[in-house]
Please model this.
Amino acid sequence: MDLGSCCRLISSKDSSSVYKHIINGSGDAFCGLNTEEKAKIMQWVQYSFKMQEKKIPIDRFAEEINNFLATKTFMVGNSITLADLAVALAIHSYLGTLHITPEIQWELSSLVRWYSLIQSSNSWTQPQIEFFRRPIYC
Model:
């Protein structure tokens, strides 16, 4: 399954279809390469759905994701998975409406780094969010 198809699947918010796809995905890096990765992906997808249903405050969600990503490049494993897409789609509207100052970008630096990586992928279907670039010092 390509990245665009995964985005559409997550955007459908049909949790049973998403879970079925994760469980049945064999050898597909988007769905996890083993049982442990599949379980972690399902947990992140569930968590992102709870945030979208407003069961978790978005600012707390963003802070938790930022802290989690402080030592990681992706949510699960070493490449983009459905977990990354689910969380990125869940947080997209928050980042789009947030007036991102350099201070906020610094506070959420791990989240911003990760989100920039996800949205730079070729099949990302959401509008791009611009972040401040660090000045280059000589």
Remarks:
- The chain is about 60% helix and 0% strand.
